[in-house]
Design goal:
Arc Repressor Mutant, subunit A, 108 residues
């Protein structure tokens, strides 16, 4: 029988020898803060759109119809009633499709 001093030494000697893991063994990545993630989302949406156009897209993505989204974005009633000609420019439509595609689940 071993003494109380020798017992931990024997247990340590019996332990398996694991490979030493270095920090270089793992791929490096940076944890982004919530502020950085928000800024990334904002910069993704910029792509040459005006603030009103972006607000219009936010309205559309949240489920509003064209007229209500235009009014919520700050467009006048006359512009809101003619969104097809006044707001849906090619770059707005492209950005809308890009963002909508990124938000839609691909598990269909």
């Amino acid at each position: 029988m071993t003494g109380w001093i020798e017992s931990p030494l024997l247990a340590a000697r019996i332990q398996p020898n694991y490979k030493t893991i270095r920090s270089d063994d793992f791929p490096s990545f940076e944890l982004s803060t919530p502020e950085q993630e928000l800024e990334q989302r904002r910069s993704d949406l910029r792509n040459g759109l005006t603030n009103r156009q972006r607000l219009f897209l936010f309205g559309k993505l949240s489920g509003l119809n064209d007229k209500d989204a235009a009014l919520a974005a700050g467009y006048s009633v006359s512009v809101a009633e003619n969104t097809k000609q006044r707001i849906w420019k090619p770059q707005v439509r492209t950005e809308y499709e890009r963002v909508r595609h990124n938000l839609t689940p691909t598990e269909v």
